[in-house]
Amino acid sequence: MSTYVYGIIDGSRSSLPEDMVGVGDPQRPVRILQESGLAAVVSDAPEGLRPKRKDLLAHQNVLAEAGAGGCVLPMRFGSVAPDDETVTAVLAERAEHYRERLRALDGKVEYNVKATHDEEAVLHRVMAENPELRSLTEANRRAGGGSYEEKLRLGEMVVAAVKAREAEDATEVRQGLESSAAAVSAGPESTGWIANVSFLVDRDGAETFLAAVEQVRKSHPHLELRVNGPLPPYSFVEPGPAEPAGSTAGAESSGE
Amino acid sequence: MTVVPAQQSGGGGGSSGLYDVLELVLDRGLVIDAFVRVSLVGIEILKIDVRVVVASVDTYLRFAEACNRLDLEAGPRKSPGVPDLVGEITESGARGKSKGALSGAAETVSNAFKQAREEREPEQQQRPRARKSTAARRKEEQE
C-alpha cells in the first residue's frame, strides 16, 4: 500500500485534530509517521489518484488543519511514497534540513497576491499620462472612428502604454508589500496576471500586511488585487527560489 | 453585477479560493526525490500562457474601439473605480473582453477539473463545454 504525504511537522506536536481525512473516495484517514523528532502527515494513497478538485481541496484542508497548530512544511500535491518506511527513511536522512526549515518558517504564513488591471480605469490612466494618445483618440473620433490604419496605430500605441503600465504596476505592487513581509517569492508564471507574488508574513503581523494591501489598493485604483491567505508556506519550503526580503529566508520581519 | 470580487481578502480555505492558489498547490511545495508524483495529465492546460494584454491586430482594434468609447472628459475627474462607470462599460465590450481573457484562465482550470472528474467522457464533448463554462464561471462569481 503506497503512502500519500501531505506535509512535515515537528514531531513533538501531538495536537493534530482527530478524525482528519484526506484524499481519495472515500477519503482516507490521516495519520502521523514519527521519525527523528519529525512527523510526516500521511494517509494511504488511493489507487489512480488524479488532480481532481476534491482531492486538491482535501490536500489543502489537511495542510490548513495541520498548520493551524504550528508550522507545517507543505508537500506539493500528489506526492506518493511506495510505503511508510520510505517516508520515515527520508525523514531520518534529511532530519537536520527539515528541522531547520521548520524553525525558519515557524510562526509564518504565506499570502498570495494577484493583480489584474481594471481595463477601463487603466485606459483612463494611460490617456491621462499621454497627451499624444489623447489627441490621436480625439482625431479618430472626429473622423467617425478613423480608418483601419488609424485605428491600428492608436490601438498599438495604447497597447504598448498599457503593457508598460502592467510592468510598472507589477513592480509597484511588489514594492508596496515587501516591506511588511519576511520574504517574497514570485508565483508561477503564465497564468494571466500582471503580478502574482507570494509573501511570507508573520502570522501575528498579518494585519500589517493586509493594511499594506489596502494602501496599494488606494494608491492604484486601476488595479484589482486578489489576496489569498493565510496559506501554508508553499513557496518558501525550500530556501532556493524564494528571495528573502531581509537577510535570509525566515529572518526577522523587522527588515528593511 | 459581473465584477470579480476584488475587495475580499483572506479566506484561503474555501473552494472559491482554491482556483486562486491552485498553482501553488501544484507548482510549489516540498518535492522529495524518493517519492513519485501523480500524473498531472488533464491539468496541463494550466501551463498555457494567458497574457492579459497580447500584442496583436485584434487587440489593437479592440483597444482603439475602447478608446473611442472612453469618456475622456470624465476620465481625470471621475475616480476610475466608480461603480456606475463600471456598469456602463461592462456590456459594451472593452471591459467585458478583458474579463473574458481573465476568467478564461480560470475556466481552463475549472475545465481541467471537470475533465479530470469526468475523464471517461469522449473528447469531442469537452469543446462545447469550454464555451458554456463562461456562463457557469460568471454565475459562480456572482454568488
TrEMBL record, chain B:
Location(s), subcellular: Gas vesicle shell
InterPro entries per the UniProt record, alphabetical: Gas-vesicle_GvpA-like, Gas_vesicle_GvpA, GvpA, GvpA-like_CS
PROSITE patterns (UniProt xref): GAS_VESICLE_A_1, GAS_VESICLE_A_2
A Pfam family: Gas_vesicle
UniProt keyword list: Gas vesicle
Keyword match Acetylation: no
Keyword Cell inner membrane (UniProt): no
Region annotated Disordered, chain positions: 73-143
Coiled coil: none
Listed Basic and acidic residues bias regions: 115-126
NCBIfam families named among the record's database cross-references: PRK09368.1
Subunit-level organization: The gas vesicle shell is 2 nm thick and consists of a single layer of this protein. It forms helical ribs nearly perpendicular to the long axis of the vesicle.
Family membership noted in the UniProt record: Belongs to the gas vesicle GvpA family.
Function, in words: Gas vesicles are hollow, gas filled proteinaceous nanostructures found in some microorganisms. During planktonic growth they allow positioning of the organism at a favorable depth for light or nutrient acquisition. GvpA forms the protein shell.
Protein's recorded name: Gas vesicle protein A
